[in-house]
Write a structure and sequence with these properties.
By secondary structure, this protein is of the alpha/beta class. The protein has two domains: about 170 residues, NAD(P)-binding Rossmann-like Domain (Rossmann fold), CATH 3.40.50; about 110 residues, 6-phosphogluconate dehydrogenase C-terminal fold, CATH 1.10.3660. It is built from twelve helices and nine strands. The protein has a six-stranded parallel sheet, sandwiched between helices. Strands 7-8-9 form a three-stranded mixed sheet, with helices on one face. Helix 4 packs parallel to helix 5 and helix 7 crosses helix 11. The longest helix has 27 residues.
Length: about 290
Amino acid sequence: MFFERVAVIGVGLIGGSFSLALKEKKLCGHVAGVGRSPANMKLALERGLIDSIEADVAAAVRGADLVMIATPVAQFSPVMKAVETALKPGAIVSDAGSTKRDVVATARAGLGAKIAQFVPAHPIAGAEHSGAAAANAQLFRDRRLVLTPLDENNKQDIETVAALWSALGARVSRMTPEEHDQVFAAVSHLPHLLAYALVNDISKRPNSAQLFSYAAGGFRDFTRVASSHPEMWRDICMANRDDLLHELHLYEKKLKAITQMLETSNAVALEKLFAEARAAREKWLNGDYE
């Protein structure tokens, strides 16, 4: 498995880490990068994440054996259309989008007859920092990678993408786009939304300076993901808003139940909820849900 030319569209945390890992594993010859920020692209080149900066998506894709789309999902429409104009037969296109139903629909519209060359994927390996400066070749090691293959995909292309991510250290699994979006609305999109909401709420209070000055480890741990890229998470929340709203309503019910426990001084019920949550988290940390 060797790709002579790889095009990385969006050389941020994920795209940059992907290209850096490819280089470390000697799985590619030349990595062509394209992105919106000249400063970020210059840094990507200086750090050796890419070998060349291309003027536009089509220029990066032209002649590529593998195309990785790692932009915010709202940018996928023009990107897919540009990819279609330059994509050679036999090349594989994949992505790192955190939502999948919208990405697949956008790919069908943009790639048209070349849709079979697109193998959707989602590396579960984000971090609170972004940009080429945050790229790390070890980012995907022992992290999950979800493939959501299409009926049109060539089986060998699916296996190639799976083998590629395995070579980068990821643990590959497969879902439908619908199942993917439902699962990640609960365990990724909702936690990010809650973290952003809490930090925003504290920051708007008259005594916000005092509150932040006393915030410690618990607040830092709970709100870590609120340092994530706002544009990216805006796009994710809007793209998966129906599943996210469903999870938000379920969480509201849980908060109402906890509110009632406090209002009625039901310490027994509150401790039971805490104990159940702690036991579930310990099982998760121990790998019992793998």
